[in-house]
Amino acid sequence: MAVIEVSRVSKRFKTYDRKEGVWGGIQNLFRRNPREVKAVDDVSFTVDAGEMVGYIGANGAGKSTTIKMLTGILVPSSGSIRANGYVPYRDRHQYTRGIGVVFGQRTQLWWDIAVVESFQLLKRIYDVSDRTFEEQLEVFDAVLNLKPLLYTPVRKLSLGERMRCDLAAAFLHRPRIVFLDEPTIGLDVVAKENIRQFLKRINAELQVTVVLTTHDLSDIEELCRRVLIIDRGHLLFDGSLEGLRERFECKSQIVFELREPGQVDFGRLGFNSTVEFQQLDALRCQAVFDKKQVASAELIKAIVNSLAVRDVMLDDTTIEEIVREIYSRGEVVTR
To answer: Which of 19, 169, 211, 330 is most deeply buried (CB count within 10 A of its CB)?
Structure first.
């Protein structure tokens, strides 16, 4: 059952071209050239209850504009949005009680008071019962290790500590939908892993619907089964992460190191028509191939059985390379 329905939504902004220099500044006072910018252009998708969806795109692609419309901060220029049974911008008071939001560059906690005091204020704002409040804090502490931070002023927290507290604040009132905009930006490897484990657990146990925007595509690979890719306001891809790999995966490569230096007769391997072999130096060789045509296991087996090999390394296409391929094609592919 869909909890988010976005139908042919567009968002247009009016901006003005400004002339340079002193004379240009004077002209700007009397004559301005308006220009319309489409931040989001005719975007449609649905998100089912309990889904964790990755929403990715380059800077200026339209991600944050979409999130702001989904949270009710911005009003669409055209099209319609319904989330959790409400129109976000029209029913903001009722709607915001059932959602959580985390913006990686901003905090919803009060800067000069202790973390637990911020949580107490949010408890009153969202009318959270004492029992639910205590249960939620126990869950958050088990995964995010919050207890050592509760009596520290927010301004004294490191970025990673603050993000852990911001996530707890977003989930404190048990929302049905949570929007996460760059939740791991600027964090170290340990802090990122803590946050990913927390999101996995909350999504699995409470069936919270999560829409995640990020530039760190490893977050998408760790957390999301479905991906939406937006570029210049247009939705280019909507489908599973596996489907994304199958449709757009570029060629893979195997680099293997010989035990003894020498020239290799690649014809002995029997893959001349489907695999591009290259000898990189006296010891190292490379095989580039399409996994749709050649199974990597078969190719590695042939290499090991036919040649005296010391080491073999398989290098698959990364999600970053696949996304770049989609941007270069610019075609729209939906599920």
So the answer is: 211
